[in-house]
């Protein structure tokens, strides 16, 4: 039983630390993972010996559901069993390990439930303190045509490049259709975005060079900028769409904020309780 649990804890540790299974680790990494798993198992056994674990049970249906979710990651039953065998598990052993994990989780949930409930004023205080972080800024869906400046090529000297771009701007007009601009970008732009019709994406203020940024955020939807210059060269900027900024209301977020604050308080209580358990274990080991 303990070997199955240790194997499962080693798997979780390897995935969290190295994003792979323990069978893919080198000797040193595997040694560290196994040591961490042993320490974690010792702590979890102590958790299940506490008064808080009294009466904690796990339904077989919950164990079966968790095991089934793991099995679903594999193409078939054989590949599932093979993957388990590579980490020292089989389906019955996995069931034992899952039962252990769910029991520990249940005890910690019971401990976390001791946390003080979040009050309405706590929710409001968090919202007010973080209001500036919740605002979604206005964005512009932008496209561009870029002509680079390179004196080694006659068509890309500063004068020639400007003349080329001004001719393109005259051809497009001040309010071109997006399809027409995209076609011109594909034909004329020297930016990799030309392959997508010059599309730069949805941009908040401050993402472009200052000259381009100022021009973009002064344009109305469908409008074309004059010829602009940046260290990359000469640009025509097109505003395809304006995505308005938005500040979520307190009422819209209150429920989510309360859940997050309750979770945070529960975790703090759990951490303090586990720290006390570890301290007691260290004292007893002396």
Automatic annotation (TrEMBL):
Recite the UniProt keywords alphabetically.
Isomerase, Rotamase
The catalysed reaction is:
[protein]-peptidylproline (omega=180) = [protein]-peptidylproline (omega=0)
According to the entry, every stretch annotated as the PpiC domain falls at 137-241
Q: Which domain of life is it from?
A: Bacteria
- Native source organism of the sequence: Plasticicumulans acidivorans
Isomerase is among the record's keywords:
yes
Give yes or no: UniProt keyword Isomerase: yes
Note the PANTHER family from the entry.
PEPTIDYL-PROLYL CIS-TRANS ISOMERASE HP_0175-RELATED (PTHR47245:SF2), PEPTIDYLPROLYL ISOMERASE (PTHR47245)
Q: What is this protein called?
A: peptidylprolyl isomerase
Family the entry assigns: Belongs to the PpiC/parvulin rotamase family.
Known EC number(s)? 5.2.1.8
Q: Name one GO molecular function term.
A: peptidyl-prolyl cis-trans isomerase activity
EC main group: isomerase
């Amino acid at each position: 039983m303990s070997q199955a649990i240790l194997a499962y804890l080693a798997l979780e540790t390897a995935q969290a630390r190295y994003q792979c299974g323990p069978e893919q680790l080198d000797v040193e990494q595997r040694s560290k993972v196994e040591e961490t798993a042993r320490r974690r198992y010792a702590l979890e056994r102590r958790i299940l010996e506490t008064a808080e674990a009294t009466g904690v049970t796990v339904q077989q249906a919950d164990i079966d559901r968790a095991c089934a979710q793991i099995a679903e990651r594999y193409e078939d039953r054989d590949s599932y069993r093979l993957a388990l065998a590579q980490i020292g598990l089989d389906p019955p052993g996995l069931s034992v390990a899952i039962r252990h994990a769910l029991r520990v989780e249940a005890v910690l949930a019971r401990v976390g439930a001791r946390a003080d409930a979040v009050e309405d004023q706590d929710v409001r205080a968090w919202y007010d303190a973080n209001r500036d972080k919740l605002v979604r800024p206005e964005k512009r869906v932008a496209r561009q045509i870029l002509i680079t400046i390179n004196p080694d090529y006659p068509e890309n000297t500063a004068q020639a490049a400007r003349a080329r771009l001004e001719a393109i701007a005259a051809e497009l007009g001040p309010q071109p259709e997006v399809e027409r601009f995209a076609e011109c970008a594909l034909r004329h732009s020297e930016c990799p975005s030309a392959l997508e019709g010059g599309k730069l994406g949805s941009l908040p203020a401050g993402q472009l060079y200052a000259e381009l940024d100022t021009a973009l955020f002064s344009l109305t939807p469908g409008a074309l900028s004059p010829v602009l210059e940046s260290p990359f060269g000469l640009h025509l900027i097109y505003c395809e769409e304006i995505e308005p900024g938005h500040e979520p209301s307190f009422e819209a977020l209150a429920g989510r904020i309360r859940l997050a604050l309750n979770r945070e308080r529960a975790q703090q209580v759990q951490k303090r309780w586990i720290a006390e358990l570890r301290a007691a274990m260290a004292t007893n080991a002396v």
